[in-house]
Write a structure and sequence with these properties.
Radius of gyration: 18 Å
Structural class: alpha/beta
Helix content: 40-55%
Shape: globular
Oligomer: single chain
Strand content: 5-15%
């Protein structure tokens, strides 16, 4: 399927690796010009070079921390008026909420709620004027099925989810969509942290811990970053113009609810 994205400008945050990289690669493969951001310049440029090589697309690396004003300004200066915005940032630490400081909460809110909102504020009016825009926020399946150890993430990402629910309805008539992608267990560095923690808690090997976790997923496995990237690309497509304000789970059926 041709997703109708050739020549579109896409800004993808936290894209040097993992799900962000996969989203950037899928969009590049569909013919987008892609700008990618992340904190580590060397890794980011290596990622940009690899995506250029595999897709032939124009891919520009813009180093910076998207959770900071300086990082956002650098990204927007490099990619003014994007047609597609993929918001993403590393998840905050796990732990007992009783032990988190005010600084911990502020950092989580800044990275996982406020930074996406600021970027949407900076780009959405241009999208409405051009009558095309696709915004995808990478959040987490814990928005629908929270875990106590992910208190910082639960709170910050739920705040973003509520904000998007209102914004999406406001701009839908302009062919601008705003959706959230909710990853479950995707095979990335962060998922390996959960495997390690599970192994320690159960007193078993990492291999056995992973096998136990996979048994809890109806699909019987962790998802791949590439699968996640393709889901993102579809939400950005011309064909997805009637899908907005949604929270799409990419979790292999792990969430047990009906709604």
């Amino acid at each position: 399927m041709d997703l109708g994205l050739k020549g579109r400008k896409a800004l993808v945050c936290a894209a040097s690796k993992g799900m962000g990289r996969a989203c950037a690669e899928s969009l590049a493969r569909e013919g987008c010009d892609v700008w990618i951001t992340a904190r580590h310049a060397d890794l980011l440029e290596a990622t940009a070079a690899a995506i250029r090589k595999t897709t032939g697309a124009k891919v520009t690396a813009v180093p910076g921390d998207i959770a900071t004003e300086a990082g956002r300004q650098a990204a927007l200066a490099a990619c003014s008026d994007p047609d597609i915005l993929v918001n993403n940032a590393g998840g905050p630490p796990t732990g007992d909420f009783r032990k988190f400081s005010a600084a911990d909460w502020s950092a989580a809110l800044e990275a996982n709620m406020l930074a996406p909102i600021y970027l949407m504020k900076a780009t959405i009016d241009g999208m409405t004027r051009r009558r095309f825009g696709r915004i995808v926020n990478i959040t987490s399946s814990t928005v629908k099925q929270p875990f106590a150890s992910l208190a910082l993430s639960n709170g910050a990402r739920s705040g973003l989810t509520g904000f998007v629910a209102g914004l999406a309805r406001e701009v839908a008539r302009h062919n601008v969509t705003v959706n959230n992608l909710l990853p479950g267990s995707i095979d990335t560095e962060r998922s390996e942290v959960f495997v390690t923690n599970h192994a320690k808690a159960r007193g078993i090997s990492r291999e056995d811990a992973r096998a136990e976790l996979e048994k809890e997923i109806p699909a019987g496995r962790f998802g791949s970053a590439a699968e996640f990237g393709e889901a993102c690309a579809f939400l950005c497509s011309a064909q997805a113009g009637y899908i907005t304000g949604q929270n799409l789970l990419v979790d292999g059926g792990a969430y047990p609810g009906t709604f």
